[in-house]
């Protein structure tokens, strides 16, 4: 198991050994394109898992400023969700059982911001900082572990984690995204230190030299090793593991900068940098726009989404979206890969089709570690009963037995799940397990459903 | 390729949803996916998946088995002609063996797959590939002269009782192939042991010495073979168990492809060597011992079914230990107990089958304690937590 080794005092090093780096075609190039506002944006309540939205405006045709409230969480009322832009609400779309699917807003030419008040978070009281973050819509950026749901403002987490090391296949570089936002990022960290009695940890890529190594008021973890080393779950597990009854909060790096911007200017201005990646992407730049922008806004060239899958998020954990849909709230990436709905003759023969990446030694693809692989969405086989053992452990750099935990989740044995570490994982921690699994089981879904079940029964 | 695909799609039509033979879809799927990897795309979770699937894994095991199988065919013929006092050509010997063994494989696959297809259709799940390996293993570990109907009955027993009764592939407690052999062994002992069954048509010859090495040892007789023939496998025995050389070649394939656990294979041989060494040390402790206890430890590793069992049976991931630590313990005990049973029970000197079945039963217990260590660490962390905070 990896040891959390203290080097002098700080920073600490985390060397991850188990895992798998997937070398795929279509990395983003470091070329930042700043875009104006799109003609339409949307806030989608389903992006906030488990949140039951209570709308402020039941009908469209209302003008809002950037930072004006749109809805709040029914079961955590202090968490408010606000408009990212100033403009006119043009539609409130509902699905089955009148569930709110999206609130569409047409941005004004000239943006007006609600004033939340400029302040140095280190000079404010804990409650003032908390109130500012949760009432301004920034609470939506804070996720809670266990359960992978939004943080509750009434909790005080034992620590807060941010991983700026993106080890996911084709994952955009947070060093690059944050390059011109370091001031806001630092202020955001300062604000977060007020929310916890413990430490704020920032995971950084040990190999990449960037300003992120020098941030203040936070414990730096210099992470190295293959994916999922960059997953915040691995860093939590090694630095400050979650026990039953404990709560840890996590944030994504660009969102910390948005919180910082709020304190530095008093304005809620949720800029989102989207990297276009994947072997089916027309170009591979970073686009800076606003949260809730349409997919078509960063992909002006029409993409046939029946032939090409558009993934909002990374290729292992993201969500498929349609071309005329909106980018998900948290995504820093749109990944485009071809759909793989074709047959492959005798594709099950060992050592055939070595152009498909495989961790297993029944293919020769491991002989080409430098090669960039073309991938598609084919499952490369059918779902089967769990037979092969030992493969999941190879990509799980936590002191957790993945197969035993998955089986406990499948049968819904809550005590066993607790014993085996369900509180320490969220679906994304099982993404690689799902990828390498010979039996093609949907591990992330199993973990998600198990977490829902534990949340319901244990709370 | 396109033409075949189009034909297949046409054949499939009545089996699709809403078609006439909808309920038999698993059967047509099994045939279809044998030709083509299906065009299914990811629906949930990770959008890309590894190139491996269960078919590929199982076929790799079959590839690993082929050297031992082909050698078994030749050796069966060779032993037969040698008993008759003739010196056969390679092809002649091979054809004799194949003539005996191919029908056994056909019966084993035919009967076993029929049951698998039946349960797949009945339970509405896909046909699992596990039986491709089991169905080949069963004839490989039988004596050459076993009647085909006994093969069929053993297959039925093992698939129904050892596998489907537990819920099918992935759920079984015991290794199905070994269960088939154990069934035949206890149900038809005269066909499965003694000195008349190991050489093809040996019962037709009067002056027979066609017993296995372990049989000879148990009977207190001289062993007529040297270490080299034990290792190469030109000795009587179950069809494919004799050649340690080719079994190790298969082990190489399994270990290289990581389909078989090197931990189990290595610790299995280590356990057998350890037990052999213990018994070999008896004379120096003043205990006389017998032919079996004094049989050199390294020869224990290369005679009988030990090598075949450790490499191809113990490594079955479903019935074996599932944790890496557990695999060490599980493998070691198989070798250790296998040699112990072999030595202590002259009535049945081949103990490896029983050792593996016994450890199959204990594998979940081993895992329970290994995983328990993980649970303990987690609970300990929780206990030390408040102290740290205070």
Features:
heterodimer, A: 459 residues, alpha/beta, 8-stranded mixed β-sheet, 6-stranded mixed β-sheet, 20% helix, 22% strand, B: 390 residues, mainly alpha, 17 helices, 1% strand
List the helices and strands and how they pair.
The complex is a heterodimer of chains A (459) and B (390).
Chain A: E1 5-6, E2 12-15, E3 32-34, E4 41-43, E5 53-55, E6 63-64, E7 69-73, E8 76-82, E9 87-94, E10 100-107, H1 126-135, E11 143-145, E12 149-150, E13 159-163, H2 174-178, H3 182-193, E14 200-205, E15 219-224, H4 232-239, E16 248-251, H5 253-265, E17 271-277, E18 286-290, H6 295-298, E19 308-312, E20 319-321, E21 333-338, E22 344-345, H7 402-411, H8 414-420, H9 431-436, H10 443-457
Parallel strand pairs in A: 2-15, 3-18, 13-14, 13-16, 14-15, 17-21
Antiparallel strand pairs in A: 1-2, 4-10, 5-7, 6-9, 7-8, 9-10, 11-12, 11-16, 17-18, 19-20, 19-21
Helix pairs in contact in A: 3-5, 7-8
Chain B: H1 2-12, H2 25-35, E1 36-37, H3 54-83, H4 90-123, H5 130-140, H6 148-163, H7 176-187, H8 189-192, H9 213-218, H10 227-232, H11 244-256, H12 262-280, H13 291-294, H14 297-302, H15 306-313, H16 324-344, H17 352-389
Describe the overall structure.
The complex is a heterodimer of chains A (459) and B (390). Chain A is an alpha/beta fold and 459 residues long. Chain A is 20% helix and 22% strand. Chain A has an eight-stranded mixed beta sheet with strand order 1-2-15-14-13-16-11-12, sandwiched between helices. In chain A, strand 19 and strand 20 form a beta hairpin. Chain B has 17 helices and one strand. Chain B is globular. At the A-B interface, strand 22, helix 9 and helix 10 of A face helix 2, strand 1, helix 3 and helix 17 of B. Strand 22 of chain A pairs antiparallel with strand 1 of chain B, so a sheet runs across the interface.
């Amino acid at each position: 198991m990896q040891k959390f080794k203290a080097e002098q005092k700080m920073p600490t090093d985390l060397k991850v050994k188990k895992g798998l780096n997937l070398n795929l075609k279509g990395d983003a190039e470091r070329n930042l394109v700043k875009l104006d506002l799109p003609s339409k944006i949307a806030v989608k309540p389903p992006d906030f898992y488990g949140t039951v939205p209570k709308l402020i405006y039941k009908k469209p045709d209302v003008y809002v400023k950037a930072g004006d409230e749109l809805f709040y969480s029914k079961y955590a009322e202090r968490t408010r969700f606000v408009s990212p832009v100033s403009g006119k609400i043009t539609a409130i779309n509902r699905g089955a059982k009148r569930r709110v699917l999206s609130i569409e807003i047409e941005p004004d030419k000239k943006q007006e911001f609600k004033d939340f008040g400029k302040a140095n978070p280190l000079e404010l009281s804990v409650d003032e900082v908390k109130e500012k973050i949760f009432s301004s819509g920034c609470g939506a950026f804070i996720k809670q572990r266990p359960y992978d749901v939004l943080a509750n403002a009434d909790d005080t987490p034992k620590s807060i984690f941010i991983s700026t090391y993106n080890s996911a296949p084709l994952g955009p570089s947070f060093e690059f995204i944050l390059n011109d936002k370091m001031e806001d990022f630092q202020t955001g960290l300062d604000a977060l230190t007020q929310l916890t009695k413990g430490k704020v940890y920032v995971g950084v890529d040990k190999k990449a030299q960037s300003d992120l190594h020098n941030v203040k008021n936070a414990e730096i973890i210099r992470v190295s090793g293959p994916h999922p080393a960059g997953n915040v779950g691995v860093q939590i597990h090694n630095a400050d593991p979650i026990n039953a009854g404990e709560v840890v909060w996590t944030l994504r790096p660009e969102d910390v900068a948005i919180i910082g911007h709020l304190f530095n200017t008093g304005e809620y201005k949720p800029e989102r940098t989207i990297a276009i990646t994947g072997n089916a992407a027309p170009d591979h730049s970073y686009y800076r726009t606003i949260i809730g922008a349409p997919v078509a806004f960063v992909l002006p060239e029409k993409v046939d989404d029946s032939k090409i899958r558009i993934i909002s998020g990374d290729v292992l954990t993201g969500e498929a979206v349609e071309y005329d849909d909106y980018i998900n709230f948290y995504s820093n990436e749109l990944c485009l890969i071809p759909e793989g709905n074709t047959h492959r003759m005798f594709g099950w023969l060992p050592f055939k089709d070595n152009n498909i990446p495989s961790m297993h030694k029944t293919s020769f693809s491991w002989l080409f570690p430098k090669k960039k692989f073309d991938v598609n969405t084919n499952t490369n086989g059918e779902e089967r009963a769990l037979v092969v053992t030992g493969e999941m452990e190879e990509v799980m750099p936590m002191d957790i037995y993945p197969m035993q935990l998955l089986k406990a989740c499948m049968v819904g044995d809550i005590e066993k799940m607790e014993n085996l570490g369900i509180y320490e994982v969220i679906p994304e921690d099982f993404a690689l397990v799902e990828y390498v699994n010979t039996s093609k089981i949907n591990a992330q879904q199993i973990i998600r459903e198990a977490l829902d079940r534990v949340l319901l029964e244990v709370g | 390729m396109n033409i075949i695909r189009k034909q297949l799609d046409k054949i499939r039509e009545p089996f699709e949803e809403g078609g006439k033979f909808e309920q038999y879809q698993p059967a047509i799927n099994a045939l279809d996916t044998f030709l083509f990897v299906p065009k299914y795309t990811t629906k949930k979770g990770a959008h890309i998946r590894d190139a491996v699937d269960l078919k590929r894994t199982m076929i790799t095991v079959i590839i690993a088995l082929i050297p031992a199988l082909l050698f078994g065919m030749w050796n069966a013929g060779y032993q037969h002609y040698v008993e008759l006092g003739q010196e056969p050509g390679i092809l002649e010997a091979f054809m004799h063996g194949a003539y005996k063994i191919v029908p056994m494989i056909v019966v084993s696959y035919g009967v076993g797959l029929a049951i698998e297809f039946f349960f797949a259709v009945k339970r509405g799940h896909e046909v699992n590939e596990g039986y491709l390996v089991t169905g080949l293993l069963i004839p490989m570990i039988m004596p050459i002269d076993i009647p085909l109907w006994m093969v069929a009955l053993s297959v039925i027993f093992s698939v129904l009782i050892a596998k489907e009764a537990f819920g099918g592939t992935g759920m079984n407690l015991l290794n199905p192939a070994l269960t088939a052999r154990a069934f035949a062994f206890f149900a038809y002992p005269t066909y499965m042991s003694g000195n008349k069954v190991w050489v093809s048509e040996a019962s037709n010859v009067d002056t027979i010495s066609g017993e296995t090495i372990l049989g000879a040892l148990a009977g207190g007789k001289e062993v007529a073979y040297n270490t080299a023939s034990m290792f190469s496998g030109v000795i009587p025995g179950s069809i494919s168990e004799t050649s340690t050389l080719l079994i190790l070649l298969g082990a190489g394939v399994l270990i290289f492809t990581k389909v078989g656990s090197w931990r189990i294979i290595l610790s299995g041989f280590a356990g057998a060597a350890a037990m052999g060494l213990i018994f070999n040390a008896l004379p120096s402790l003043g205990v006389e011992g017998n032919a079996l206890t004094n049989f050199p430890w390294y020869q224990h590793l290369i005679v009988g079914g030990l090598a075949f069992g450790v490499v191809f049976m113990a490594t079955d991931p479903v019935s074996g230990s599932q944790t890496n630590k557990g695999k060490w313990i599980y493998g070691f005990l198989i070798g250790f107990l296998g040699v112990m049973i072999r030595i202590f029970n002259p009535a049945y000197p081949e103990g490896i089958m029983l050792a593996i079945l016994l450890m199959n039963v204990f594998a979940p217990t081993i895992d329970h304690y290994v995983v328990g260590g993980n649970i303990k660490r987690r609970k300990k962390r929780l206990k030390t937590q408040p102290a740290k905070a205070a």
